[in-house]
Amino acid sequence: MNLKLSAKQLCLTGVMAALVFLMTFIPKVPIPLGYAHLGDGMIFIAAYIIGKKEGMIAAAIGSALADLIGGFPIWILPTFIIKLVMAYIFCELSGDSMVKNVFAMTVAVLFMATGYTVTGAILFDSLEAGLASAPGLLIKGGINIIMATAVIACVKKSYLPLLRAEH
Fold first, then answer.
1. What is the pLDDT of residue 161?
2. What is the mean pLDDT of residues 31-45?
3. pLDDT, tens digit (0-9, with 9 covering 90-100), for 103-155
4. How far apart are CA 6 and CA 10, in angstroms?
5. Could you give all domains of the chain from N- to C-terminal order, each with its CATH number?
6. pTM to 2 decimals?
7. Which of 130, 129, 134, 92 shows the shortest CA–CA distance to 110?
8. Is 56 helix (H, G, I), strand (E, B) or coil?
9. Helices (DSSP H) in the chain: which residue ranges?
10. Distance CA 99, CA 117 (A)
């Protein structure tokens, strides 16, 4: 994958990374081993709007930054990797139909929940600790899918053509 970005791509990636950070950092609801947020929905929205490469970068940087600033340094690298792959999965499986997009988000959320469950079990040397976070992660994922689906449906016809247009 070519990581070279045009000025427009760089700016959109930076804005989306900031939005992923804000949606991850601000609306926090504590769950075992972490917190629930709306950042995953923003990852799907960002990847849908700006594309795979830029969406993956925005997802990884915005989410990892939330862990850094939020006081969860042990999670920075796992979050970077999990969210990068999560955006990749969404982009590879999504398409023009909302059904396909919801399927892609569901597979990406299942990957995310599995990734954090396994990582939690490794970091805390306890399968029980890792499994304790799984229900909260799945509920958070479901809420994020609903939020992203609604926003993508609104953005799809009105703003997306403007963002993708080359001047």
1. 60
2. 87
3. 999 999 999 999 999 999 999 999 998 899 899 999 999 999 999 999 999 88
4. 6
5. 7-162 (1.10.1760.20)
6. 0.91
7. 134
8. helix
9. 7-25, 39-50, 52-70, 76-93, 98-123, 127-158, 160-164
10. 27
